[in-house]
Design brief:
alpha/beta, 7-stranded mixed beta sheet, globular, about 210 residues
């Protein structure tokens, strides 16, 4: 093994410098895998990452616990992750990739849906409860903290009592579909701002817009 490492890297394998670690970000879009969920409201996290990938001419590759894609913005490395664990087990994939890539919690951003916000409203927060969202609940339980960055995308609550699951797992209506491209572009701009300017400046600029 030592001879193989020497052959690959010279006298010793490369050591990941602290400044390199601090330039890495994990951007996670929550959703459910499968064509039947592709255009549903609950999969907005996947849709944001797909938009970000399209803008940067990226393609996702099947990887452990999810589909991933990587690119750089002004020296910052972004790892995009769409967990393949289904929504309710999102924490496993998040934890695995944070550990594997040695990404600090401050550089983690979870993108998810929120029925408590009007359609298209964006709300970036650094901590908070799971708000009844099973994906966030699992991430909080796995990371053992509620202090991590999350972008909530408003779905609205245009459903009658007892129809919440049907609503979030339903497809966007015509009006929403028409407005969605602009909202997705706004989300991709928010991600870039989060990476380049930090969470506080980004919250001031993008929240409630």
């Amino acid at each position: 093994m030592r001879s193989l490492l020497k052959l690959l890297f010279g006298s010793s394998p490369p050591i990941l410098k602290e400044e390199d670690i601090m330039k890495k970000y994990l951007i996670v879009g929550l959703g459910n895998i499968g064509l039947e969920y592709e255009n549903t409201r609950h999969n907005i996290g996947f849709q944001v990452l797909n938009r970000l990938a399209d803008k940067n001419e990226l393609s996702f590759s099947s990887n452990k616990l999810g589909a991933t894609a990587t690119f750089k913005i002004k020296g910052r490395s972004l790892l995009l992750l769409k967990p393949a664990t289904f929504m309710n087990r999102s924490g496993k994939a998040v934890h695995y990739w944070m550990e594997k890539e040695k990404i600090p919690k401050e550089h983690l951003l979870i993108i998810t849906d929120d029925i408590n916000l009007p359609f298209g409203t964006l709300r970036l927060k650094t901590k908070g409860s799971d708000g009844g969202h099973n994906g966030l609940a699992d991430i909080q339980n796995t990371l053992q903290t509620n202090q991590y960055n999350r972008l909530r995308f408003g779905l609205g609550s245009d459903f009658s009592k007892g129809r919440q699951v049907e609503y979030v797992l339903g497809n966007w209506n015509e009006e929403e579909s028409s407005a969605l491209p602009e909202r997705l572009d706004r989300c991709t701009a928010l991600v870039s701002s989060f990476v380049l300017q930090g969470v506080n400046i980004t919250m001031n600029e993008f929240n409630n817009t």
